[in-house]
Write a structure and sequence with these properties.
The protein contains 25 helices and 22 strands. It is an alpha/beta fold. The strands form four sheets. It has a seven-stranded mixed β-sheet. A seven-stranded parallel β-sheet has the order 12-13-11-14-15-10-16, with helices on both faces. The two termini are about 35 Å apart. The structure holds adenosine-5'-diphosphate and magnesium ion (MG).
């Protein structure tokens, strides 16, 4: 019944059905039920025209149209109706869809009109009001809480107003008798005191009162999140039982030698805990799929390295993929250094590796002489074949797409263990939804001795003071980053900003007293690397750069990060950039330079940055400002395309949904029990009609 095409509903017909399909994606009765109102209005109150206030509020008025005229305007014309009640007159105005409106309006018949009242030139007007004959209005199934449905301009222009959708919805309830199959188990319903499906669906569309509306919303949000979590957790479980991983049974010589003799510092407790979690995964029979989250500078690299040692000790190869050339080089050099007393072979493969290097790497990989390969996307090329890849690590995973993760997966006959690392803080609730099928480890502790970075906001006109401060820091032997936004590496404007900036820095910090590096995306990789290395070795005092340095670069002696046009950066980028300093024992500073013109969002971003260093807190603000889809990028935004729940506002419901999904599955992993029959059935239905997301390979 609920899969009946929408065309068959009385009052819809082929034209409207077409529009509903195209504009709102409504194909079936089921889709229509799931068209949840965006908000509700109180339509118990009626205004008189002489009671209207100039506050642009939504009002409902009873009256008649006494006159209808077209008024020419700059472009086209508008349709104006004079609307009258016993206290005065006002205008109803249409700028679009006039033909349809004119044909359907009746003069001198009582209407109820609804909309936002504008005050203009001494007259109140309602643009594109919601209209209904008083007679019908009184007959309708309605309540104090009037639902407002999502709509589009096209729908409104073709006369499918909110009122029409409301009527179609009523018809649906008449035809289905308002009875909807229960989709959660009795247990959950009674434990959580949920409304039944039918009650919830009724009250979401025709709420009897506030309380029932709230309960209906809760029930439907819970249900939505519950099935997503169920799917994610089920996927993870099936995965673990089906896909055999290589059991890395022992922790061997390399690991132990390194741990006991060559560890350059004591691991933090968080690092130890995460290593333990990884070791457990690697030692089990299942294939690891783990996300490692840790704020910038929390020390993920060493954890990655030691995990790779476990693979090597068990006779397997490992690889570490990073998003940029600079970062790969740095990982390669860093790991060579800390492993130089170990008997392992590490190589680097990037876009700029030459043919003979590549040939050698290919050979060593295939005959198994190479233990660890580090590199960029170049690792994914088909020519790169491992003898026995046992562990693949992806650094800064947010820079890669899902396909790339799955490509690594297929680098071997059976999939290697996978560890993805990210420093882009993702709010926990978001991580739960987007990475819900992964196991998550968190490094929530910075290495000891780090001082919190001091962050300030300065306007461009204070540049002289900022430069003076930089000079003092250089005097103390520190190094400084000055970063320019290059939103698109190809944009001429941005490039010019950078070069102008560079010139002014060179003027204020003249050679030979000061040495300056510059790095940007238009440079050849070799030149970039040369400049970068000069800075890393401490040969230059200032690094002028674009955001190419955003991820991963590690220069502990750098203590000042100046971000130019900081208002143009997003929060997570600002936080990443700031993470380039504060890596040594010295007090570090981040200076956010902006012009005076700041949008409200920019102000919030700057205020947040100066207030806190906590990546998770920053991520929460970011989520509030941008919404989940934007944060995760388009490739994953489908996951977040929720019908009723809101990851931002409904965190508690999400947590509870995840808790109950886990609980249900831990008692009954296959959902075969009588009790969970409804859940299993609904789950299959959802998967079948693609209302549930299938996004991770
Ligand atoms: P991220 O998590 O951002 O990748 P890194 O792995 O680059 O961080 O580590 C940042 C810096 O902290 C590096 O210089 C690293 O050597 C150092 N470091 C990592 N762990 C510790 C520790 N337990 N104690 C002291 N320093 C550490
Ligand atoms: Mg890193």
């Amino acid at each position: 019944m609920l899969q009946t095409p929408i065309d068959y509903l009385k009052g819809v017909g082929p034209n409207r059905a077409d529009l509903l399909r195209k504009e709102l994606g409504i194909h079936t009765y089921q889709d229509l039920i799931n068209l949840f109102p965006n908000r509700y209005l109180d339509r118990t109150k009626y205004y008189k025209i002489n009671q209207l206030q100039r506050n642009n509020a939504e009002v409902q008025i009873i009256g008649e149209i006494v006159n209808l005229k077209e008024v020419a305007q700059k472009r086209g014309k508008r349709l104006v109706a004079t609307f009258k009640d016993d206290t005065g007159t006002m205008d109803l105005v249409w700028f679009r869809g006039q033909k349809w409106v004119r044909e359907s309006l009746k003069l001198n018949k009582p209407y109820v009109v609804f909309g936002k009242a504008n005050w203009f030139n001494g007259v109140f007007s309602l643009p594109h009001p919601d209209m209904e004959f008083l007679e019908e209005h009184e007959k309708n199934l309605r309540s104090a809480m009037q639902p407002i449905y999502p709509s589009t301009e096209k729908l409104a222009n073709k006369g499918i107003t909110n009122r029409v959708i409301n009527k179609i919805m009523q018809q649906l309830f008449i035809e289905t008798k308002g009875r909807f199959e229960e989709s959660l188990s009795n247990e959950l319903i009674s434990e959580l005191k949920l409304l039944s499906k039918s009650e919830a669906v009724f009250n979401i569309h025709f709420p009897k009162n506030q309380e029932l509306l709230a309960r209906a919303q809760f029930r439907l949000k819970f249900e939505e999140l519950f099935y997503i979590q169920l799917q994610l957790i089920l996927k993870n479980l099936i995965h673990k039982s089906k896909i055999k991983g290589f059991p890395f049974e022992h922790v061997g010589d390399n690991f132990n030698t390194f741990y006991n003799e060559h560890l350059p510092f004591q691991l933090t407790n968080a690092q130890k805990r995460v290593l333990k979690e990884i070791r457990q995964d690697l030692g089990s029979n299942a294939q690891m799929n783990r996300l490692l989250q840790g704020d910038v500078g929390s020390g993920k690299t060493i954890v990655a390295f030691m995990s790779m040692l476990i693979a090597v000790d068990n006779g397997f190869q490992a690889c570490l993929m990073a998003p940029t050339e600079i970062l790969s080089v740095q990982h390669h050099n860093g790991l060579l250094e800390i492993s130089n007393n170990l008997n392992i072979r590490i190589k680097l493969l990037t876009g700029s590796s030459n043919t003979s290097e590549r040939r050698e790497i290919h050979k060593l990989l295939e005959n198994g002489e190479l233990d660890i390969l580090i590199g960029t996307h170049a690792l994914l090329e088909d020519k790169v074949k491992f003898k026995n890849l046992g562990l693949a690590i992806i650094d800064e995973q947010h820079r890669f797409g899902v396909e790339q993760r799955s490509k690594l997966w297929h680098k071997n006959t059976s999939p290697p263990h996978i560890l993805v690392m990210t420093a882009t803080p993702i709010p926990r609730t978001l991580a739960m939804s987007v990475y819900g099928d992964l196991d998550i480890s968190v490094i929530d502790e910075l290495p000891p001795g780090r001082q919190a970075i001091k962050t300030v906001h300065r306007f461009d006109k204070n540049r002289l003071n900022v430069f003076r401060f930089i000079r003092d820091e250089i005097e103390k032997g520190r190094q400084v980053y000055i970063v320019y936004p290059l939103i698109q590496e190809s944009e001429k404007m941005d490039y010019k900003d950078l070069m102008d900036g560079y010139e002014s820095v060179v003027r204020d910090f003249p050679m030979p007293k000061y040495q300056i590096s510059i790095v940007h995306g238009k440079m050849k990789p070799a030149d970039k690397d040369y400049e970068m290395q000069r800075f890393i070795k401490g040969e230059t005092n200032i690094m002028v750069a674009t955001t190419v340095i955003e991820v991963g670069v590690n220069v502990p002696n750098a203590s000042v990060m100046v971000i130019e046009s900081a208002e143009r950066f997003g929060l997570s980028q600002l936080h990443q950039l700031r993470g380039r300093v504060g890596r040594g024992a010295e007090q570090s500073y981040c200076i956010l330079m902006t012009s005076h013109k700041l949008s409200n969002d920019s102000k919030v971003r700057l205020e947040t940055m100066t207030r806190t260093n906590d990546g998770f807190e920053i991520a929460e603000v970011d989520l509030r400002l941008r919404g989940p889809g934007d944060i995760m990028g388009t490739q994953q935004s489908g996951v977040l395309n929720l019908k009723i729940a809101d990851l931002l506002k409904d965190k508690d419901i999400l947590q509870s949904a995840r808790y109950y999904a886990k609980k249900v599955l831990s008692n009954d992993p296959t959902l075969k029990s009588q009790e969970n029959k409804t859940i299993l059935y609904t789950y299959h239905q959802l998967s079948k009609y693609k209302n549930i997301w299938n996004y991770i390979s």
